[in-house]
């Protein structure tokens, strides 16, 4: 069981950092249009898209949906770990 929990935690941590890097890339001009930005975008955008659809930007320009997506990712991972712990013990 410990291996499953560590694997889930590692995957979620990697994805968390990819989202965070993608968010920070929005502050740099043309960073998302680079090859690196496009690769990260292909992994991150499918997850962020539903949040952007339901959470409008604040004041028309500040997008808080990635922050909500990061919280949701953490809570989903904690829930999955709790479910696996209860099933495997």
UniProtKB/TrEMBL annotation:
Domain of life: Bacteria
TM stretches of this protein: 7-28, 67-88
Keywords: Membrane, Transmembrane, Transmembrane helix
InterPro entries to which the protein is assigned, alphabetical: CCB3/YggT (IPR003425)
Pfam families assigned: CCB3_YggT
PANTHER family per UniProt: PROTEIN COFACTOR ASSEMBLY OF COMPLEX C SUBUNIT B CCB3, CHLOROPLASTIC-RELATED, YLMG HOMOLOG PROTEIN 2, CHLOROPLASTIC
Family classification: Belongs to the YggT family.
Protein name: YggT family protein
Native source organism of the sequence: Paenibacillus polygoni
């Amino acid at each position: 069981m410990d291996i499953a929990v560590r694997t889930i935690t590692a995957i979620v941590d990697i994805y968390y950092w990819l989202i965070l890097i993608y968010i920070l890339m929005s502050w740099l001009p043309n960073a998302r249009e680079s090859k690196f930005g496009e690769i990260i975008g292909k992994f991150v955008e499918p997850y962020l898209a539903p949040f952007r659809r339901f959470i409008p930007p604040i004041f028309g320009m500040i997008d808080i949906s990635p922050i909500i997506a990061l919280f949701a990712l953490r809570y989903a991972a904690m829930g999955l770990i709790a479910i696996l712990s209860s099933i495997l013990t």
